[in-house]
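COMPLEX REQUEST
Ligand: zinc ion
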Amino acid sequence: MRSITTFNLQYAHRFYGFKGEAQYLHGHTGTLTIEVEDTINEGVNMVFPCNEIKKIAWDILRNFDHALILREDDPLLPAILDVYDKQGIKNGHPQNCMKGEAFHTKLATAYPDCRVVVTKESMTVEGMIKIVYDLLKDKMNISKLTFTSGDNAASERYWVCKNMDRCPLCGVALDEKGVCHKCGYKKE
Ligand SMILES: [Zn+2]
Ligand SMILES: [Zn+2]
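STATUS: Structure written out below.
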């Protein structure tokens, strides 16, 4: 069975070199749906608590919220960083506090201090699904991702072959020692 969670990301981007309106800088509210598949954890009668899926994902993905997402070769990138630098907000600001942990993968790099994500490929809905799967695949058993943004939508399914050890009291994943970080339960 699957546990499903959905949340929104507000971001600006453009498709550099694309022959159409999307080559101009514009913004979206994107909606990401994460489906986690496993057996039902009989202790709590759920696959995985949805609020925990959201928390784990949001810790990383809030890098995309109120962020500017540009491809690595886009000339807007140095131009914008130059403006942020002159304005004194490139390396952070006291009011920029809703930051995620910086990350670097082969598909994307997050710079939370200036709320910029630099991508290898254009950040289409398909591109976003590739980036998100890469960031979250080792943290949860993702069986499907869906991302919608404006009139665009894409989804991808994944094979889930592993069972995750979960706490029978609160449902979250146990660490490698069989301990629940949330309630302290220990697997015998
Ligand atoms: Zn767009
Ligand atoms: Zn627990």
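REMARKS: The CA atoms of residues 73 and 155 lie 26 Å apart. Helices lie at 50-61, 76-87, 125-136.
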